[in-house]
Amino acid sequence: MKNIDGVHNEKLMNRDHLFFAVLLLVLTTLVFLFVCQKILKIVEDGCFNRLREYAEVASNEFIMSNLHYGGTLQFVADALGERADYSTDSLQPKLDELQPFLRDQKINILLPGDTVITPDGTLMSSSKLGISFEEEATPQSHVTVRLESDKFEEKLLYHFVPIKSHDRVVAVAFWNFSLGLIHQYLRKDKRYDHKMYVYVVNRDDGRLIADTKHDSLKSIRDYVNEMDNEKGLFSALLDSMLAGGTGEGCVENYWEESNCFYYKPLAVNHWSIAISSPKKVAFASIHKVRFILLCFGLAVLALFVAYYVLLRRVAVRCFAGESDRSKQDDVGKVRYMQMKLLGLLSKNFIHIYYVNPESGSYVVYPSFMNDLYNEILSRFDCNVSLYDIMNNDELTKIHKDDLELCHSVFNKEAFLEMMGSNESRKVVDMRWFINGNWVWLRHTLIGLADGKGGGYVLIGVEDVNDEKVAIEAERERLSVIKGLSEDFTLVSFINPSTREDHLYYVKKNNWADNPNWRKVGNFEDRLKLIANTLVHPDDRKMFIDMTTRDVVREKLSAKSAYYVNYRMIINGVVEYWQLKFVMAGKAPDAQEQIVAGFISVDESTRLQLEQKEQLETQADALKQALSAAQAANSAKKEFLNSISHEIRTPLNAVIGLTSIATSHLEDRERVKDCLVKIDQSSDRLLSIINDILDMSRIESGKFDLNETPTHLFEVIHEVERDIRNDLQAKELKFELDCVDINDDEVVCDKNRLRQALLKILSNSIKFTREGGSISMSVKETPLTKSSYAAYEFRIKDNGIGMSEEFLKTVYEPFTRELSASKENRGMGLGLAITKNSVEMMGGQIEIASRLHVGTEVVMTFEFKLVQSKKREKDVENLADSGFAGKKILLVEDNILNREITMEILQDNGFIVTAVEDGDVAVKMLSKATSRPFDVILMDVRMPVMDGYEATKRIRALDNKDVAGIPIVAMTANAFDEDRQASFEVGMNEHIAKPVSIEKLKGVLAMFL
Q1: Gap between the Cα atoms of 934 and 917, Å rounded
Q2: Alpha carbon of 939 to those of 818, 895, 942: distances in Å?
Q3: How many CB atoms are located within 10 Å of the residue 92 CB?
Q4: Higher-confidence position of 992 and 544
Q5: Residues 6+ apart with CB under 8 A from 848
Q6: pLDDT at residue 860 tops 50
Q7: Coil vs helix vs strand at 111
Q8: Is the pLDDT score of 14 beyond 70?
Q9: What is the number of other CB atoms lying within 10 angstroms of the CB of residue 258?
Q10: Pairwise CA distance, residues 817 & 636, whole Å
Q11: Which of 219, 447, 706, 957 has its CA 20 to 30 A from that of 812?
């Protein structure tokens, strides 16, 4: 086209574009129509699939009744099969047995002789039903439809199942139902909202059952005239259906509108099912798809029109541009080329190449002669293509890292690509091996097109080695600075010999952004200025000493980096900073080069300080934990001492009283008194052991309940009987109120309930003064929960009461009220065990108390009610156990232990003086002028002054004769550390309770 007239070219272009657009449109239309046909066919098959689906569903549901009753009839046939006699009389007993079932299922029995036994047991002739035994006695089950009657309700379907004996049909079980039921089923099916219609057709006579009553039982052939169209399509579908076939189709004038049909044979012999639906309903999806495809086709057509218009405009513009360039070449080609050459020659090129991009031939225009020019020119042969020369790596000797760039630029395809409508320019830097060195040369390529497919490429070669070396050196220098300056506030380059520095980087809007920095003489002066104006006064001397030239050079000689951490005051705020020195390389004068950078480490330092503080806090917590552990060990020791003391005290009484009773068997009164006291001590010891065991089970989670039917009155009276002697001994008034108990027998743990009541009442007796009063009331409250009742046990006394502080810890194990006397103190386990017992039984306990006023304890339970039963009572049998003039001082706070020990000592000839506390003993001995006693027996745990403190004060008395009296510890604290503690305070010997008479005499003999 470039050699033909412009007007002719434009017409030819328009014709070609039009032909191409029309051809593309025709092909697209054919493909579109073919795809549409396939899509519509798929949608049409889908519409008929809907009819097929409904036909399958209706067919299956239509025969379900037959299948159900077929199984029922087979059950009856199996029940009556294999009998010797099938006469009416012989069958009657079995039929009477099955009659309720037969009557419910409406099943008849057909016997030989055409006799029918109806479901209600009556006999009738089968001729009335239009059936006979000979016709229906077939070996297999079968279904028959009777359509002879004119009444719709009498159109019946019969299902026959043979009854066999020795493989011979001897009777037939059958049932029938009206076809009106089928009609009713078809009308009630709402599955498709009556947009589809169902027909059941008998293929023998053409009778049909429709889902509209007025059409039922007519012959389907009656509809041929009113349904068939001129092509006879309806007749063809009817013939296929009556022949037992399966098919589908649409009839155009069926009842004045188009309808679609689908039909198939039923599982019931000689019957078929047909489904019809208006074509506008069945094929509604096709109409939607046709509309969508039409819209899509119109959209595609619009796109083709737009494409043609756009293509035509682009072609016209291209043609106009090409015409303008041709005119430009014709008018000023020579002037244009001269301007390009002048522009190139004006630059500082070594030489210039004028290259033909088609052949690669070239002409060299030297700018000036030098060694580089001669070296390069010696490698080039002007008779060889430039492409061959530049692709000869051995000849060009270009650096291996630049070979890929060289090959991608200096080739024919790349040069022709530069021959565009506009000027194309490329600049390529490569390293050439010249005169034993790698030299950087810059190649400037300019493509000059003549507008007619031809043109030239001008290449100017320039020496840029010095520039590249300087850039590379600068890049290395900047990389070092960048490594320091990213997070630094000020970075400076230092000559360590002269201490001169150059500021390379200063962060803006910071303390380092000071316009006067340039006036500072050297780095040493800069450091002094920073130290005197910014560094914290406490860190100033350290900062100056650690940044001197000698220190920095010494540190950097050992490692590549050196750090100085210090604090600065910036805008009145103390911040943590760091000065970093790095050895960066060698200067031209062979001196070291050091880079110094100032960086803020305030955030990280404060984080470290916080972590240090956290560690110190954790250390304090560990110390506290250690203290807590030590306290726990101390508490454990105190616990063991308490247990030891509480157990040994009654045990000492048992042993001592047993020994006394044994020694005075002839004195009945004395033996009796000993036995009474032994019994009391045994009860106390047993109570202590039980409390310890209960507490152990509670802490280990093994505290179980044994719930059994229990009489509450029995429990209450047992408790009252157990405390009666204690009440009488202290002359206490006791009131018991149980009148509000309606239901006496409940399910509970009798022993735990009795234990809880006894512990509360025992505390009341223990802490109520003589002549006081105690009351217990039991009240029953009905519950809405069936067979349950609530019971409230309220125990009240006017004893010494408890303080508010003690009430806060009253349920904690081993806690005891300090205001209570030593005789009344226990182990402190009673209320802890009681609370756990009450809560284990699902109850609650509340305590209200005022010091010197009294205490009230309320326990509430919910017990299940049961029938009364007799309970056996457990009876425990208690087993009976029995120097002259020497003076002994017995210091013992426990009255019983004092009495026992005095009895033992007096029986052995001792003169015994007993006091109840260490404080009394110290006061007595401090008044003595001479030794009043030969030995002192000292208890350790006493309320006012314990044995250890009393021994210390006795040993410290001014009267050395009195202070030197032998002191023997006689205590329940029986561990080795207790013995050691006794010796450390000045005691001479240690005896653990319970005390053996012989051992006591042996120890006393050591000092008498």
Answers
A1: 19
A2: 19, 12, 7
A3: 13
A4: 544
A5: 855, 856, 858
A6: yes
A7: strand
A8: no
A9: 16
A10: 19
A11: 706
pLDDT at 431 over 60: yes
Element (H, E) at 587: none
For residue 549, give Cα distances in angstroms to 488, 528, 558, 852. 21, 13, 15, 86
Residue 404: its pLDDT value, please? 87
| Cα distance between residue 594 and residue 578, in whole Å | 16
| pLDDT at position 880 over 50 | no
Q: How far is CA 487 from CA 788, 826, 915, in A?
A: 79, 73, 85
Element (H, E) at 296: helix 284-345
Of 47, 48, 46, 52, the closest CA to residue 264 belongs to 52
Closest by Cα among 866, 873, 869, 907 to 888: 907
Pair 640, 975: CB distance under 8 Å? yes
Q: In the predicted model, is pLDDT for residue 441 greater than 50?
A: yes
The packing angle between helices 64-80 and 6-62, to 10°, is: 30
Most confident segment among 290-299, 521-530, 790-799, 974-983: 790-799
Helices (H), 189-283: 224-227, 233-242, 279-282
Distance CA 77, CA 175 (A): 12
Which tokens belong to 246? 């399966």
For the cut 60, the answer to whether the pLDDT of residue 185 exceeds it is no
Tokens describing residue 716: 């209450």
**pLDDT at residue number 879:** 29
DSSP tag of 77 = H
Respond yes or no on whether the N-terminal peptide bond of residue 994 is cis (omega within 30° of 0). Answer: yes
Q: 370, 377 in Cβ contact below 8 A? A: no
Measured distance CA(361)–CA(384) in Å, rounded: 7
Residue with tokens 């009817």: 238
pLDDT of residue 57: 63
Tokens representing 576 are 């943590």
Residue 433, pLDDT > 80, answer yes
Of residues 909 and 479, which shows the higher confidence score?
909
What is the chain's mean pLDDT, rounded? 76
Separation of alpha carbons 814 and 831, rounded Å: 10
Q: How many CB atoms lie within 10 A of CB 82?
A: 10
Query: Measured over all CA atoms, what is the biggest interatomic distance in the chain, rounded to whole angstroms?
Result: 163
Burial 437-469 (b: 16+ CB within 10 A, else e): eebbbbbbbbbbbbbeeebbbbbbbbbebeebe
Residues recorded for the chain: 1008
State the helix-helix crossing angle for 179-188 and 6-62, rounded to 10 degrees.
140
- What the block records as the tokens of 401 is 């890292």
Query: Whose CA is closest to 158, among 198, 217, 110?
Result: 110
Residues 6+ apart with CB under 8 A from 984: none
Alpha carbon distances (Å) from 864 to 716, 777, 842, 977: 18, 20, 11, 53
Cα torsion for 924, 925, 930, 935, to the nearest 10°? 110
Secondary structure of residue 274 in the 3-state scheme: strand
Confidence of residue 747 (pLDDT cuts 50, 70, 90): very high
Alpha carbon distance 499, 493 (integer Å)? 10
Angle between helices 712-729 and 750-766 in degrees, nearest 10:
20
| Amino acid found at 932 | P
Residue 975: what pLDDT? 67
The more confident residue out of 288 and 909 is 909
What is the C-alpha to C-alpha distance for residues 286 and 43, in angstroms, rounded to an integer?
6
Amino acid at position 540, single letter: R
SS3 70: helix
Q: Give the pLDDT confidence score for residue 346 in this predicted structure.
A: 46
DSSP state of 231: T
pLDDT over 70 at 299, yes or no = yes
Contact (Cβ atoms closer than 8 angstroms) between residue 881 and residue 678: yes
Q: What is the pTM (predicted TM-score) of this model? A: 0.30
Per-residue pLDDT tens for 580-599? 888 865 544 445 678 888 88
Report how far residue 411's alpha carbon sits from residue 531's, in angstroms, rounded to the nearest whole number.
65
Report yes or no: 337 and 328 within 8 Å, Cβ to Cβ.
no
